[in-house]
Amino acid sequence: MGAWPKAGKVGLALVVAVTVMLLSYFFLIETQVTNLETAQQKELDLRVDYQKKYVMAINLELYQQQMLEMEKTFSVLLKQLPATHETPGMLDDITFAGTSVGLTFVRINWMPEIEKEFYTELPIQIEVIGDYHQIGNFVSEIAKLPRIVSLHDFVIQSREEGNQSFSVIAKTYRYKELKK
Predict the structure, then answer these.
(1) Nearest to residue 170, comparing CAs of 94, 58, 99?
(2) For a Cys staple, 82 with which of 32, 62, 86, 134, CB 3.0–4.6 Å?
């Protein structure tokens, strides 16, 4: 090797140097670079997380205020839903609303309750006879009730006597207490 030409010695030295650099990179440096990239990504994630929490902490008082307002609104809405002992009173209110506008009741029946996730539907099948204005006034009086009552699946049919038959399903709702 000592008798090699200068170009051969330089070439061999370069090959050995490149081989040592590549082996050093793959065995020593590559894992450190990967660890660094992972740490940098984790740092970015933590910064974003910190910024989100910082914004929440800054607005904590506002969030607490909004929570109190939502609880007040929720309690007002819950008061519009009848309790178990108030459902017969709903039937009286609906009957009064119909008779006060001059309708004649043909049928008013409770239908089976329908259980939902947070509430229970209490449907009432109603059939009345009257003219269009009386039916419109009846619907208006139902809307004025202090409890939530929605009207579904209504049918208006003309009768031989000149008035109309109005069939509707009125639904009121009862809040279902969450079991702990």
Answers:
(1) 94
(2) 86
Tally Cβ neighbours within 10 Å of residue 178. 7
Dist CA 54 CA 10 (whole Å)? 60
CA distance 77 to 57: 30
Say how far apart CA 111 and CA 30 lie, in whole Å.
Answer: 73
> Tokens 């050093």, residue?
24
Q: Which stretches within 80-146 are classed as H helix?
A: 87-100, 132-143
pLDDT digits (tens, 9 = 90+) for 74-111: 777 776 666 565 667 778 888 899 999 999 999 988 88
- Give the angle subtended at the CA of 44 by the CAs of 48 and 53, to the nearest 5°: 20
| Closest-CA residue to 88 (of 147, 137, 175, 176) | 147
Output the six-digit token pair for 140: 């208006």
Phi, psi of 172 (to 5 degrees): -115, 165
Tokens describing residue 23: 């082996």
- Please give the structure tokens belonging to residue 101: 């506008």
